[in-house]
């Protein structure tokens, strides 16, 4: 069931179904669009995975079933020709085109795998979200490249490509993301691209959306306040910074927010 965004912000993290949550966020950009066909497509892919993956026991077998259904049968793959297009992070358009970013495709794989009762997570890999299947040992797959299995060598190359050749990748770079963190990353992709395209109003809308979906995430409030200040909406920025102060426990960040509030108050 696709939740409304206000309800999404109230759910416990483990209650969030990633694909339906992303669909709810996407709906905000498609007012009046009937979501029934999109929800039906998600159901159809899950039903097909239930057949193809019926006897899949190991993470490797589960990976093969996911690639078979999503890539080979339904045609989902990464958009390599227009990678930075905003529609690649808009789940409605991803479902229309069967093309998307690593994070949007990972959402589809993870949500379907979990409905099968499999252990699946989107990983916090910099620059290119991967998916893990299983517990120990896990299997890494890349939905952007058709659900292929990611070797240790490929993972190292990906991390060094994102972090730099001299960087030392750590566990945090392949850590499982909480559901809200995945949605934040999806929205952040859209917001950052909007800013790069010179559309701060669109970016502000997306950061506001982020605070609805993940009200405990301080980064959304900070970025929202930054843009509100750029647009000279001081009252709104003060509200955003105050909200950030309520959810931030890190002493340094609290000090930073308090200083920003003092600066606004004296301006």
Describe the fold and architecture.
With 267 residues, the protein is mainly alpha-helical. It folds into two domains: 5-174, C8orf32 fold (Roll), CATH 3.10.620; 216-266, no CATH class. The protein is built from twelve helices and six strands. It has helices spanning 5-8, 18-27, 36-52, 59-73, 91-97, 102-115, 152-163, 179-196, 200-213, 218-230, 234-247, 251-266, and strands spanning 77-78, 99-100, 120-122, 131-133, 139-142, 148-149. The strands form two sheets. The protein has a four-stranded antiparallel β-sheet with strand order 3-4-5-6, covered by helices on one side. A hairpin with a 5-residue loop joins β4 (131-133) and β5 (139-142). α9 runs antiparallel to α10 (218-230).
Topology:
Elements: H1 5-8, H2 18-27, H3 36-52, H4 59-73, E1 77-78, H5 91-97, E2 99-100, H6 102-115, E3 120-122, E4 131-133, E5 139-142, E6 148-149, H7 152-163, H8 179-196, H9 200-213, H10 218-230, H11 234-247, H12 251-266
Parallel strand pairs: 1-2
Antiparallel strand pairs: 3-4, 4-5, 5-6
Q: Let me know the largest β-sheet.
A: 4 strands, antiparallel
Give me the strand/helix succession: HHHHEHEHEEEEHHHHHH
CATH C-level label of the largest domain: Alpha Beta
Give the CATH architecture of the largest domain: Roll
Q: Overall pLDDT, averaged?
A: 94
Number of domains: 2
How far apart are the termini? 47 Å
Q: Which strand order does the major sheet show?
A: 3-4-5-6
Given as residue ranges, the uncertain stretches (5+ residues, pLDDT < 50) are: none
């Amino acid at each position: 069931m696709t939740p409304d965004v206000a309800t999404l912000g109230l759910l416990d993290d483990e209650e969030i179904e990633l694909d339906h949550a992303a669909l709810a966020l996407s709906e905000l950009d498609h007012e009046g669009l009937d979501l029934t066909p999109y929800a039906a497509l998600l159901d159809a892919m899950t039903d097909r995975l239930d057949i193809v993956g019926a006897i899949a026991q190991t993470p490797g077998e589960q990976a093969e079933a996911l690639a078979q259904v999503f890539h080979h049968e339904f045609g989902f793959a990464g958009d390599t020709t227009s990678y930075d297009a905003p529609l690649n992070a808009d789940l409605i358009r991803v479902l229309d085109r069967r093309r998307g970013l690593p994070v949007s495709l990972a959402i589809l794989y993870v949500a379907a795998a979990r409905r099968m009762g499999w252990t699946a997570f989107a990983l916090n890999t910099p620059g290119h979200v991967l998916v893990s299947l299983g517990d120990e040992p896990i299997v890494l797959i890349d939905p952007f490249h058709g659900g292929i299995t990611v070797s240790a060598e490929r993972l190292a190359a990906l991390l060094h490509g994102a972090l730099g050749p001299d960087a030392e990748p750590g566990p945090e770079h392949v850590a499982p993301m909480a559901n809200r963190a995945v949605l934040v990353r999806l929205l952040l992709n859209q917001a950052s691209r909007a800013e790069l395209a010179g559309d701060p109003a669109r970016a502000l809308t997306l950061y506001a959306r982020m605070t609805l979906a993940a009200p405990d995430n301080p980064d959304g409030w900070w970025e929202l306040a930054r843009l509100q200040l750029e647009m000279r909406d001081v009252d709104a920025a003060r509200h955003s910074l105050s909200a950030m102060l309520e959810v931030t426990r890190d002493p340094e960040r609290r000090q930073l927010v308090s200083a920003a509030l003092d600066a606004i108050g004296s301006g």
